Amino acid sequence: MRQLRLHAFEMNTVGHIQQGLWRHPRDQSRHYTRLDHWVSLARTLERGLFDGLFLADVLGTYDVYGGSPEAALRGAVQVPANDPLLLIPAMAHATRHLGFAVTANIAAEHPFVFARRMSTLDHLTAGRIGWNVVTGYLESAARALGLPRQPGHDARYDAADAFLAAARDLWLTSWEDGAVLRDRAAGIYTDPARVRPVTASGPGWSLHGIHLSEPSPQRVPVIYQAGASGRGRRFAAEHAECVFVNATTKPQVARLVADLRAQAASLGRRLLVFMGATVVVSTTAAAAHAKHAEYEAYASPEGALVHSAGSMGIDFAALPQDAPILAPATQAILSNVEALGGTTKRAFINSLSLGGRQPPIVGAPAEVADALIAWSEAADLDGFILARTVTPECFVDFVDLVVPELQSRGAYKTAYAPGTLREKLFT
User: Fold this and answer.
1) In contact, 7 and 50? CB cutoff 8 Å
2) Cβ burial 94-119 (10 Å sphere, 16+ → b, else e)
3) Cβ burial 70-93 (10 Å sphere, 16+ → b, else e)
């Protein structure tokens, strides 16, 4: 039986995916500004042998709904949001094995500076860092960065190709193996003959210089990517090691995974594919469904619409309840728009659960394990990225209840493999 790999899905914010649950009396997401909140989470995940903590991020605000950021601000829909990279050193210091996949938008970065930042994190985590490559989709982010408009969907991926090529050149070729001598007697730390400058350019940037960091344990962070459009899948096949897909139906996810794997295999590459999942678990099925009903009482359908409006480029506030939702000419997340399939606003609202678009898995530990294994087998998934509901209890519950059940079936590891994040994932 395939052993599942697991990541937790979090964001340095109050309301991440399941909108409104920050209002639940047991939810602790309001403490997102405190390091002890994050260190405690990291220790819980490592106790559960999670492969990684996947930290989302978004630049800009969700202001498509009603043409204003008011609803996002009122409902804490991914705003306020702090920088995710600054959390990682403290969590890494408190753990030994947990990996950290951090989201960074190429539109807000220069490859020369960004490459050093990731090398620094790879050093500080002893090789446990990954990068979720994103290209942005919010017009509000483009305005905040001083751009006249958000570049086109495919053009953003073209820019990411150039950015990643430059970053890889800095990580892999600027410093040769053996360049660092640390020869105290001779007074030579680095052999200058083994360090070369990198020259590259892309949309809005150019560089010429040596990488400022000495080679880190992985040199290149593990590359994560979540593109599901045709262009996004091509980017993932060419560059990603771990791909994050959304849950739709088993046949749809299976087709998407098969396409990703085929494209990667044609390039001689191997991918790990993770699906987003939301789990509500308790000791019995009845208790789990009661907990789900309790959570639903705090969920925010409006918050989910605000989030969806931004990611799809559709102002749901302006739409009548029963008119078909027509896909606009948008430069937002095309796969999300395509997934609507001409449904109505009313039907879309009725499909929301726990303030999000992802149907949760609800049940006793055995039922949750059954569902995860069934998804993995039907869609050829390597594992799951588990979204938070009420935090931290959702992760504590999973670690205490579901992990032992998966282990008892041989579907989950009982100890970490040695090595870097890449070595652990691909062992």
Assistant:
1) yes
2) bbebbbbbbbbbbbebebbebbebbb
3) ebbeebbbbbebeebbebbeebbe
Contact assessment for residue 164 and residue 133, using Cβ atoms and an 8 Å cutoff: yes
Residues in the chain: 427
Question: Does residue 229 surpass a pLDDT of 80?
Answer: yes
Nearest to 30 by CA among 22, 41, 42, 40: 22
8 A C-beta contact, residue 160 and residue 133: yes
Domain-wise residue ranges, the chain: 5-286+359-426
Does residue 238 surpass a pLDDT of 90? yes
Please compute the mean of the pLDDT values over residues 398-426 and round it to a whole number.
98
């430059």: which residue's tokens? 166
DSSP 8-state assignment for residue 331 = S
Bridge partners (DSSP) of residue 418 are: none
Maximum pairwise Cα distance, the chain: 79
Q: How much of the chain exceeds pLDDT 90, in percent?
A: 85
Pick the closest to residue 225 from 263, 280, 194, 191 (CA basis). Answer: 263
Q: Give Rg (Cα) of the chain.
A: 22
Cβ burial of 25 (10 Å; 0-12, 13-18, 19+) is exposed
- H helices within 275-339, ranges in order? 285-296, 301-312, 334-338
Please give the Cα distance from 296 to 24 (Å, whole number): 10
CA 327-332-335 angle, to 5 degrees, is: 65
Amino acid at 171: W
- Terminal-residue alpha carbon distance, the chain: 15
- Dihedral Cα 9, 12, 17, 23, nearest 10 deg: 120
Enter the pTM of the model.
0.94
Q: How far apart are CA 126 and CA 99, in angstroms?
A: 10
- Are 266 and 296 within 8 A, CB to CB? no
The CA distance from 23 to 161, in Å, is 41
Neighbouring-strand partners of residue 386: 8, 277
On whether the CB atoms of residues 191 and 181 are closer than 8 A, the answer is yes
* 313-363 confidence digits (pLDDT tens): 888 888 888 878 876 655 554 455 555 656 888 888 888 888 777 889 999
The arrangement of secondary structure in 5-286+359-426, i.e. its CATH architecture, is Alpha-Beta Barrel (3.20)
